[in-house]
Design a protein that fits this description.
318 residues, alpha/beta, UDP-N-acetylmuramoyl-L-alanine:D-glutamate ligase, 11 helices, binds adenosine-5'-diphosphate, Ribokinase, nucleotide-binding, PfkB_dom, cytoplasm, ATP-binding
Length: 318
């Protein structure tokens, strides 16, 4: 089983020609309410890709909460660990998207802010026998740490998506088996306190020695296995626990006609969780996730755009 602990948000998206400046009002040309939140997205992606997924989180007693629960349940996610807060509304992300696809996002945590280590303790039975525990930083650090500890103690692989980026205590790094970052988060992490040296993440013309240096920098922080996603440039597997010569694997991009990259990183994370839970080696999981995330960009929306296992297999075998 995969246990995902974290956020559920209603994405309130308004489309406009250009984003408003401070104090300015602009006219929008469309509005949509969709299920979102990194953890809910990751849970849905993992479930559609064949994982048996339990989501631990919190929503409010409102229509947005109902929408999130039914979207996750429809994808096959076990939502019995999602608590309904008596006091807080469901978390929302208010998103403005301009005609170039550039966006502004404001998140109100709402019920996500009430998720606490006691919710992790209440889900103790769910952690029993879990293969993967999947975490991100959209809920409180103490909750993330408690879930990482519970996963570690249960013998699960702890997969941490360091997003939205924040510094993490060494304790959490030590509990992390696989770190998943995009290029931006990777450079923020390597540039943060305690990591002297260059924060630059190699560009698309990088060679293996550039990535070797990055692998060593992560390993110095106790992060032995790291996946770096590079958008349209694919991804990189840094595995300091692999035999020499197999510690760096560059995964070629999957060429698609991307129309909406929102939630691509979450599709990638959910896919990695699903494949690791199925016993796949890290590099295989990343290759599978590259296809799943690429397919997710070919349709508008987030959870509704996610592929299932057959969609991915079709690309892998073509
Ligand atoms: P995030 O969405 O977190 O910013 P990335 O932009 O790195 O993360 O995208 C995550 C993954 O989604 C990539 O590693 C890749 O597999 C896939 N992806 C994103 N954009 C594209 C694209 N334009 N073409 C193909 N795959 C993409």
């Amino acid at each position: 089983r995969i246990v995902v602990v974290g956020s559920l948000n209603a994405d309130l998206t308004i489309y406009c020609e250009r984003l408003p400046l401070p104090g300015e009002t602009v006219h929008g040309n469309g509005f949509a309410v969709n299920p979102g939140g990194k953890s809910a997205n990751q849970a849905v992606a993992a479930s559609l890709l064949g994982g048996s997924v339990s989501l631990v989180g919190a929503v409010g007693a409102d229509a947005n909460g109902d929408m999130l629960l039914s979207s996750a349940a429809r994808a096959g996610v076990d939502i019995s660990g999602v608590r309904t807060s008596a006091t807080e509304a469901t978390g929302v992300a208010v998103i403005a998207v301009d005609s170039n696809g550039e966006n502004n996002i404001i998140i109100s945590a709402g019920a996500n802010g009430t998720l606490s280590p006691s919710d992790v303790a209440a889900a103790a039975e769910t952690f029993d026998g879990a293969a993967v525990v999947c975490l991100c930083l959209e809920v409180g650090r103490d909750t993330v740490e408690a879930a990482a500890r519970a996963g570690h103690d249960a013998g699960a692989t702890v997969l941490l998506n360091l997003s939205p980026y924040a510094e993490i205590p060494q304790q959490l790094a030590d509990l992390t088996d696989v770190l998943l970052v995009n290029a931006h988060e990777a450079s923020l992490f390597l540039g943060s306190a305690g990591n002297p040296g260059s924060a630059a993440i190699p560009g698309s013309d990088a060679d293996a020695s550039d990535w070797e240096a990055v692998r060593l920098r992560f390993a110095e922080r106790g992060l032995q296995r790291v996946l770096v996603t590079l958008g349209a440039h694919g991804s990189v597997v840094l595995d300091s626990l692999a035999p020499a010569g197999q510690q760096l694997i560059q995964i070629a991009p999957v060429r698609v006609n991307a129309v909406d990259t929102t939630g691509a990183g979450d599709a990638f994370t959910g896919a990695v969780a699903a494949r690791l839970a199925a016993g796949a080696p890290l590099a295989d999981a990343a290759a599978f996730a590259s296809v799943a995330a690429a397919l997710a960009t070919t349709r508008k929306g987030t959870q509704a755009a996610y592929p299932d296992e057959n969609d991915v297999r079709r690309v892998l075998t073509s």
